[in-house]
Write a structure and sequence with these properties.
flat, about 70% helix, mainly alpha
Length: about 70
């Protein structure tokens, strides 16, 4: 059963519809991209990847959106 689930995961990763959305904010897009293949990454890497994404998203929420204010 594990092999079947792994094959399904590989199928999803190659599907463009499963790629993270593009937000237009480089740091956020990079953080989401870093999580896109989390299921295939070693479990020991999960914490660091999730912590980094959390940090980037938290920073983005804390600073004003200069693009919308100037546009």
């Amino acid at each position: 059963m594990t092999e079947l689930n792994q094959g399904q995961s590989d199928d999803l990763e190659s599907d463009p519809a499963t790629r993270p959305p593009q937000t237009g904010h480089t740091a956020i897009d990079d953080a989401l991209l870093g999580l896109a293949d989390l299921t295939s990454a070693p479990l020991s890497d999960h914490h660091d990847r999730l912590a980094k994404a959390h940090e980037v998203l938290h920073e983005a929420l804390d600073r004003p959106n200069e693009q919308s204010e100037n546009g």
